[in-house]
Amino acid sequence: MIDSMPHVPLYIDGEWTKSTSEQWIDVTNPATNQPIARVPMATDDEMAAAIASAADTFQRWKEVAVPERARLMLEYQHLLKAHHDELAELLSSETGKNFADAKGDVWRGIEVVEQAANISSMMMGEIVENVATDIDCYSMTQPLGVCCGITPFNFPAMIPLWMFPMAIAAGNTFVLKPSEQVPLTAIRLVELFEQAGAPKGVLQIVHGGKPQVDFLLHHPEIRAISFVGSVPVARYIYQTGTHNLKRVQAFAGAKNHMVVMPDANKDQVVNNLVGASVGAAGQRCMAISVAVLVGSAKEILPELKEAMSKVKPGIWNDSNAGYGPLISPQAKARVLSLIQEGKDEGARCELDGSECTVDGYPEGNWVGPTLFSGVTTEMSIYQQEIFGPVLICLEVDTLDEAIELINNNPYGNGTSIFTACGAAARKFQHHIQVGQVGINVPIPVPLPFFSFTGWRGSFYGDLHAYGKQAIRFYTETKTVTSRWFYDDIPDGPNMTIHLR
């Protein structure tokens, strides 16, 4: 019976509560499409209560010593590491990711928490003595207030951990609204944060869809909004949030290209292209979905097809599975539709995963590895982010043509080049108009002491996730100019009286 399924709770003012909402939706296992839990669409009163608690707690939390906030993050990362595999298994149950992908998801989040534990040095200000006679000027970094995060289905551990640890370490309080498709991992992350010693009200968790997101976008107490998701939603959140005078960082879609030069190591190219394109079922904004083959590099196509054909999807604990199912039947239908459009538009389908099945799991959202060659920039499979295990190949004659092709694409999340020529790599990294560049690295996601820096149509905002830019996003700078008069210095036997 549906009523016997777990009901995903809200976390408001340090208390786990069942929502009073009359609207609930099923959380399903993508490998079976069977419900595993029910998640509420939080009521307006519940949303307001979460924000009010965060606003009230902020007045106390911002006064907590920065080293004490750092110690909270140290304890939290310790607990996350201790529960790493448990979190990965839970994550697999709601996303369908295989265990290796799920563990990577959790670990990349832990790395950001480790950086949040370094908050003391990142909160330092600046000072200049004697900007004028006996006048000093100095700046200090102070938190904003109540911040919120709206996170997607594809990285339910990593992306929330991009957001709330950095914001809270900087002295803010936080309201998290995870994807309604994958709320279970977020719940466990919050439980462990509570166990680490987080005070009541520092972190809230609410659930829902567009009405709940709109509540956050319009509420006057919300100062900053972090979002990761699709292009239309990112644009909407950026426009609506900034219209309401909020600080917004909205990470959107991508069409990431890998340029393969004729001198590149063929085995390295094939191995990296396969993993970067079909890993996590292609459901990641940093997936390589386009291979740009320069000159004779097109000769790798037979080897690439053979290698991709050996990759099979499967359930999370199948050690032979290269990746899991797509998140939903709707996502599968969209990918299959784009594959068909590619065929109809004249691309050569070298490998077709449309009819993929997995023994014992006939209802899963399976799509096999799919490879297209002969693709042009006018085709829909090039113009749209497919978000599935599909790799398309374009051919050009020169590196300059490859750079021009990528720069003409509206997205600018990540790109890479495989080459043995340092000059080619240098030219590529200098002239490419993409925020994250890999050189003989397929998916150039930076470690968290740098920032995640997508450009152009892949990002709306000014300051990016994690690293130093995250601290700037979640804080304000206050500048103080001070003057003290030497004639007022007390001295002599009456000095103690002046100092009382």
TrEMBL record:
Keywords, comma-separated and alphabetical: NAD, Oxidoreductase
CDD domains: ALDH_F6_MMSDH
One example of a Gene Ontology biological process annotation: thymine catabolic process
Record EC number: 1.2.1.27
One Pfam family cited in the UniProt record for this chain: Aldedh
Domain of life: Bacteria
Ranges for domain Aldehyde dehydrogenase: 16-480
Listed GO MF terms: methylmalonate-semialdehyde dehydrogenase (acylating, NAD) activity
Family: Belongs to the aldehyde dehydrogenase family.
PANTHER family, alphabetized: MALONATE-SEMIALDEHYDE DEHYDROGENASE, METHYLMALONATE-SEMIALDEHYDE DEHYDROGENASE [ACYLATING], MITOCHONDRIAL
Record-given protein name: methylmalonate-semialdehyde dehydrogenase (CoA acylating)
